[in-house]
Amino acid sequence: MEIRTVGVVGLGTMGAGIAQVCVQAGVETVGREVTQELAERGRATVERYLGRGVEKGRVTQDEMDAALGRLTLTTELSDLAGCDLVIEAVVERIDVKRELFAQLDRLVGPEAILATNTSALSVTEIAAATTRPERVVGMHFFNPAPVMPLVEVVRAELTDPAAHEAAYAFAERIGKEPIRCSDTPGFVVNRVLIPVLNDAIRVLDEARVTPEDLDKAMLHGTRWPIGPCALIDLIGVDVHVHASEALWESLREPRMAPPPRLVAMAKAGLLGRKTGRGFYSYGQ
Ligand SMILES: NC(=O)c1ccc[n+]([C@@H]2O[C@H](COP(=O)([O-])OP(=O)(O)OC[C@H]3O[C@@H](n4cnc5c(N)ncnc54)[C@H](O)[C@@H]3O)[C@@H](O)[C@H]2O)c1
Questions:
Q1: What is the per-residue pLDDT across 161-213, written as a single tens digit (0 to 9) for each?
Q2: How remote is the CA of residue 7 from the centroid of ligand 1, in Å?
Q3: Alpha-carbon torsion angle 71, 76, 79, 80, nearest 10
Q4: What is the pTM for the complete model shown?
């Protein structure tokens, strides 16, 4: 089945990035937001990133204009009716995603694939809100979507292998490095990374090491490209705590539980780069 038109629901951090990747790869894309203002903000995000690409000589002005010309904005879900693939990137709430999938199921053609970008919810549970669970997959992009090559293409319990392969092929077509995996908590990367980062934070107190020295240790002792404290600041302390809690709830493994130090930081608003202070301070 050929994927000609893609819908992206939610043009926040992830949705805007995903829409950008699609239009840059030459795919007609319909972006849906809840308000016109948010939709315009999503387009502005895409424009800003592409503009930076032009400045750096990675994208030509013509390519940027053509890419933006492939992005249509709407606030009406019904405008996604003609899409062959819809990628959902709305708030991480199971009730909102299930309701959205039930609506999309009634709108799009019978062959259309519905994909969720959820990080920690069950793709199977989202698929169960539709009458076509065999056409539902996870497409887990990483932040920032235009920069990070990986997409975890997730097969839920009832996903048809053909739909899974079509989503995988689409991820390759838009220039990504996809992997295939099943619908387990945290999929692959977060299942590995979250407990490792939590261990790193516990070591801060156990070994009485400073964040600077912990990061230095991992950079120079293992050649990690970024230290764990700097990485949590980049991800956002709140985002990491939320993902840890979700894994802890599903797996009940102590290493998944967010370390109290991170929970305290999240409560204090020390969220990392986005608030200017986390383990490190960032000039704003
Ligand atoms: N930020 C990340 O690092 C990251 C990485 C991978 C996956 N994800 C996943 O991507 C999804 C979106 O995350 P984000 O970081 O882009 O969030 P965001 O806050 O930047 O965007 C959220 C989007 O949801 C929409 N929204 C909010 N409430 C809604 C509602 N009730 N109905 C419909 N739309 C609603 C908003 O308009 C917005 O477009 C989540 O499922 C998240 O787990 C996030």
A1: 999 999 999 999 999 999 999 999 999 999 999 999 999 999 999 999 999 99
A2: 15
A3: 80
A4: 0.94
